């Protein structure tokens, strides 16, 4: 194949991908976007941020706060055998004050459908948000660190207690810590996954 023929083919391919308004062109664009994100953007971000897992979509409401921080902290929305208690009472019982919590990242939590950008979790403190493997239906989990020594203990801000699966999280389970929140665009992934479940794939 000579150089002129190669140029002609590339020109036609370029026109087909970027200018042609057909179903085939749209399908090719979607496939190309998937390949570029999966094999270029995602690994590139992972390299820059020091984690093999740089982006995660939030698929549960376990970190939601509702109307505002003060209401979330004070409202007695949890129940135990001893009676109703607030999130604030839980955190105070676990040596985290309201002032401390106010200084944490993502003080107002985040919502189902948000996307979180992660970075290396080599240095993690109480109050930071970890993503970790836990072998649960919502694996991986994205929750806040509430205690640490050589292992981590986490809790979802919206949950009334720390679950059994998050009492002892070893460093090998940790995929990264959340540093940036991008609202709502995770609904694209959630919708796609639900569609696949609906059609039985």
End-to-end CA span = 42 Å
Number of helices: 6
Count of distinct strands: 8
The number of domains:
2
Q: Say what the CATH topology of the largest domain is.
A: Umud Fragment, subunit A
Task: Spell out the helices and strands N to C.
Answer: HHEHEEHHEEEEEH
Q: Taking strands numbered 1, 2, ... along the chain, how are they ordered across the largest sheet?
A: 1-4-8-5-6-7
Task: Indicate the overall shape.
Answer: elongated
CATH class of the largest domain: Mainly Beta
**Which structural class do you get from the secondary structure elements?**
alpha+beta
Question: What is the beta-strand fraction?
Answer: 15-25%
Present the secondary structure layout.
Elements: H1 3-18, H2 23-49, E1 55-57, H3 69-74, E2 78-80, E3 83-85, H4 87-93, H5 98-102, E4 115-119, E5 129-132, E6 141-148, E7 152-155, E8 174-182, H6 187-198
Antiparallel strand pairs: 1-4, 2-3, 4-8, 5-6, 5-8, 6-7
